[in-house]
Amino acid sequence: MHIDLNSDLGESFGAWSMGNDAAMLDIVSSANVACGFHAGDPAGILQTLKAAAERGVAVGAHVSYPDLQGFGRRNMDLASADLVADVIYQVSALSGMAATVGTTVRYVKPHGALYNTIASDERQARDVIAAIRAVNPELALVALAGSPLVGWARGAGLRVIAEAFADRAYTAQGTLVSRREKGAVLHDAADVAQRMLRLVREGTVLAIDGSVARVEAQSICVHGDSDGALEMARAVRAALERDGIAIRTFAA
User: Which HAMAP family match (predicted)?
Assistant: First the structure.
């Protein structure tokens, strides 16, 4: 058995530092690299791309709404022409930078509010799908496991990678518990590691109400910007590998 571990990287901006990309790149198999719309400056993005290339970590474009001030977490009702162009711009820019350090962009993972919106908003979802296909229809799309987006993207001919989140609680329906609710974000590294082991082995997680929810995923996101993020990521990887589960990018 095998699973992909991914993390959101390249998000530092000027004197403002976000996470520890170098350390996280020693743990994950895929790196979602910011494209400058929600975070990341050119020098930092290039440094992260180079570090990923040196470690053989697959690179994906972490595209966002144009929202530096809000870190891409504010909902935006962009016109289709603007959203398509924004995504094309971001993927193309990151692809050009990646080429200079000997790597390539192999997939797209939307960030923050854009990720959550297109999980169920068909109009914006199809805009993002159209943009990806315009740049390179061979690019994979990382999408929230169990969301309508998975079907829309596959129906449009894209390869879709369903994603689960290591540090997030799930509802009985297999959806993420809103960050506004108590217990939505998990902090116990050992508990999170065992949850992810169960997810890979059985395709289920223990929901916030104590029931068992089905979540089938080919990639697990380990966030790099929260307290104890590295400890949690290391614990997840160690638990999986102890159980004979290989950590391998889906983009190989």
Answer: PxpA
Residue indicated by tokens 């692809």: 95
Extents of the domains making up the chain: 2-247
Task: Name the amino acid, one letter, at 185.
Answer: V
**CA 4 – CA 9 distance, rounded (Å):** 16
Q: Does domain 2-247 have CATH number 3.20.20.370?
A: yes
Angle, helices 189-202/229-242, rounded to nearest 10 degrees? 40
The number of CA neighbours under 13 Å toward the Cβ of 234 is 7
Q: Which helix (H) or strand (E) holds 32?
A: strand 30-34
Q: Rounded CA gap, 121 and 30, in Å? A: 26
Q: How far is CA 37 from the centre of its chain?
A: 16
Please write the tens of the pLDDT for every residue from 185-227.
999 999 999 999 999 999 999 999 999 999 999 999 998 766 6
Residue 194 CA to residue 125 CA, distance in Å, equals: 33
Give the pLDDT confidence score for residue 228 in this predicted structure.
82
Q: Per DSSP, what are the bridge partners of residue 76?
A: none
End-to-end Cα spacing for the chain: 15
pLDDT at 57 over 90: yes
What is the C-alpha separation between 94 and 110, in angstroms, rounded? 14
